[in-house]
UniProtKB/TrEMBL annotation, chains A, B:
Pfam families: DHH (PF01368), DHHA1 (PF02272). Signal peptide: none annotated. Residues 234-308 form the DHHA1 domain. Residues 19-154 form the DDH domain. This is Bifunctional oligoribonuclease/PAP phosphatase NrnA.
Length: 322, 322
């Protein structure tokens, strides 16, 4: 495993009072990294506060350490830790930021702006991989909850070890967690497969709506307002719904349209290389990147269909190998 | 990683002519183990024949080594290798079995009967984990196709590293494969997520049919004959359809009824601990085990509903902790 720079380890050994911040809408990697590092620092008799946006996804609510989140903050800390945040603007922060001797950034995003006084930024599968290596460098003993936290972070941010961000180190770390607990099968099920009935039915409705545009490898799915209301609102549209289109063999571009209010759509686009759907999102004031982007839309859905077909056809004209 | 016994390594070093056999309906672990070990032995200038049941699942057909399967067999071999077969009866074998000096069994099933002259049987996530360690003991160089083969075997037999059969060694081996190829993301997608349009629509229809019996944690799904025909027949009912019920939070027992001919149902049952649905399957002349069983049925579906509710209620009466 790659070594953590000495100055990072020294900073965590020398200081006593920590505040942990995460990105907005914290995911498995953010929550897992916070809990593993927070508990590790407490084991070394440091004081640790957490300032974290709620609500936290149901599937992550099993950690006992969550009871320690969002207690009264101090006016100043030795170290403010920014975990899994590519920029300070993306962090969920208190309105009045406490003072700190050091801002320490620990993150795995390529786009990280190195906005800390100290930055431990590496391109890994999950931020928790860096956290795990820090804990090892600090000679902290990994307990079962910390092991669950690191496993949760890695398995959610790597799509159960399937994404291109997985490396040898990812598997070495995951493997070592089996020395703490013999099985992560129940946790994996909880994180990856389980849906409540409304989420399940919403996924079914998305599959039912799946249509292919004009014999092109473009999938369109529409969840209309009535369907969304019927199954408990947008909170029950699980992350993997947009994948329904992309996981269909032969599909290169997917658009998922969620009618969040009558006539108002939130649109999620997904594309495979070399198709660039970011430009569609930009046209409507949205954002994202070439292969995953989104925007808000009110109007005739045909307009979006035309945009999708144009992106596909233009790329095909430029690139005869498609 | 655990050491392979010396006598196994010696057998593979000393002998020259090999025949590889797998279990019937070979899966990712069987095919992957065969290709990795077969190519490894060829690298050591051994001759290797494969006798393997076809058709092989579409998602596994990308291996070039498959071109070497099922060529003319010899009358005798030095070693017949039984890979991933818990018993010799479960192996897919030629009508006239060639002679062999040694029958060598390499397998990871708990129930393995140790039916070989030599047996390398260990409880691992996949048989290919044992194969990988054998290849290392033989100092074989793992090429990209062999790495894909081992990865395919492990990821399919462990449900993408989610099942309780995963160990530290599983991850160590998976990690080492990243030294051969930087990413297994495309392969993972191919193996786990992709469905053709008919498979996707069939899954959607199964979700649409999902109902809960009488406020009990019992899920019922019915794919009627017209739906099955509409989406290309039972071949397009993918393995994970029965999971739709079991992955719904709160569900303990699932029945999937596939109307394969008008009025004729193939029934798949799934249960969580401590519910035993095997007895229902036995009642109708089917088989399986306590948590997964199946049978054929012609009659009023209400009869099956009653059986499911009885299993649930009887267990609840016996066990007050439910």
């Amino acid at each position: 495993m790659k070594k953590i720079p000495d100055e990072i380890v020294a900073c965590l050994k020398e200081n006593e009072e920590y505040l942990i911040l995460l990105h907005q809408k914290p995911d498995g990697d953010a929550i897992g990294s916070a809990i593993a590092l927070g508990k590790g620092l407490k084991q070394l008799n440091k004081s640790v506060d957490y300032y974290i946006e709620t609500p936290i996804e149901d599937k992550l609510l099993f950690f006992e350490e969550i009871d320690c989140f969002n207690r009264q903050l101090k006016e100043s800390y030795d170290v403010i830790l920014f975990l899994d945040c590519s920029s300070s603007g993306f962090a969920y922060s208190p309105q009045t930021m406490p003072k700190a001797k050091v801002k320490l950034v620990i993150d795995h995003h390529k786009s990280n702006a190195h906005y800390g006084d100290l930055n431990c930024v590496e391109i890994t599968g999950a931020t928790a991989e860096i956290v795990y290596r820090i804990l090892k460098a600090l000679a902290v003993e990994i307990d079962e909850e910390m092991a669950d936290a690191v496993f949760t972070a890695i398995t959610t941010d790597t799509g159960s070890f399937q994404f291109s961000n997985v490396t040898n180190d990812t598997h070495i770390i995951a493997g070592e967690l089996y020395k703490v607990k013999p099985s992560y099968a129940n946790l994996s099920k909880r994180l990856h497969n389980q849906k409540n009935m409304d989420q399940m039915k919403m996924t079914g409705a998305a599959i039912h709506s799946l249509e292919i545009l004009d014999s092109m490898p473009i999938a369109l799915m529409v969840l209309d307002y009535d369907t969304i209301v019927k199954y408990g609102g947008t909170i029950n549209i699980s992350d993997d719904v947009a994948n329904v289109g992309q996981n269909t063999i032969g599909v290169a571009i997917t658009a998922l349209l969620k009618e969040v209010r009558p006539g108002d759509y939130r649109v999620s686009l997904r594309a495979k290389f070399p198709f660039d759907i970011h430009k569609i999102a930009l046209k409507y004031g949205g954002g994202g990147h070439e292969r995953a982007a989104g925007f808000n839309f009110r109007g005739d859905i045909q307009e979006i269909k035309d945009d999708l077909m144009e992106v596909y056809q233009t790329q095909c004209e430029q690139d005869e190998t498609i």
